[in-house]
Amino acid sequence: MGLFAVLFFTVRAVAFDGQNNPIDNDLQKSWWWIVTGVIAVISFFFRLRVFDEIKDFSIDSVNHPDRVLQSGRVHLKQLQIISYSLIALEVGWSLLTGVPTFLGWLAAVGYSLLMRYEFFVPVFLKKSLILYGFTHMLIMPLIILWIYVAHAGLYFPLAFWYVCAASLLAGFSFEIARKIHAPSHERSGIDSYSKSLGFKVAVGTLLIVLAGGLAVQYLLLNALAANWYVVALIGIIYLLLLILYITNLRKPDENQLRKGELLVSLFMIASYLSVIIVVNFL
């Protein structure tokens, strides 16, 4: 959940840097508005998670019977009640901020509902794990649009588009990384990119997506007039990932691949934090 708070402050930083002036709206300065906005964003992602649990409940009951939901320690109905109750907070925060923010929220909600029902073509989407994952990651730019409009209105500098692309690529790279396994650890009935594409192709795809993310992050930080060493730090993480995954091409090691997954998450978090630090402290 902390990552979603970081995302909120990343978009906030891009919004105010893009306006190239200090915050002049008392509402946006107020701590309660900021806290409520962070909770609203966390609530949105929580509901996405609940949607995933609903879709995957039957499959997970077979493959992961010991999980909290599958074992009955927590019930889907309980999660749904919490998630749907929090919609009121999202709507209230959006309407209080303004009609454009509410419309941004509606756009994100509408797309999330299409995701919930797998765009009404589940059989077609499940034929390609890449297509399935990419279509679901497109929610990220819409969530960023919602947060951004709440801060900057309908003003969209290059940095806005860069942060949308960066979040899309970062999220997609993490999605791929967590579903790459050594051949000896593939499980029947559980989808993975390494099974669907082949291990080497899956690793190559991940490195290409990460390279794209690094390129967009460079453009974003350059638009924010960041110092070269900030970009270099992100580049070092990518270099470590490159070494780890190329090493695993010859001899796949599940433990190393899980470390790679953690490094990809670090790459994503570092990308977001670098924006916050550059705008607010450098």
TrEMBL record:
A single cellular component GO annotation: membrane
One family name in Pfam for this protein: UbiA
Claim: Repeat is one of the keywords in the record: no
Protein's UniProt keywords contain Cytoplasm: no
An annotated Gene Ontology molecular function: transferase activity, transferring alkyl or aryl (other than methyl) groups
Membrane-topology annotation of the record: Multi-pass membrane protein
This protein's UniProt keywords: Cell membrane, Membrane, Transmembrane, Transmembrane helix
Superkingdom field: Bacteria
Xref: InterPro entries: UbiA_prenyltransferase, UbiA_sf
Transmembrane segments: 31-48, 102-117, 129-149, 155-176, 197-220, 226-248, 260-281
Protein's cellular compartments: Membrane
Name of the protein this chain belongs to: Prenyltransferase
Organism in which the protein naturally occurs: Nonlabens ponticola
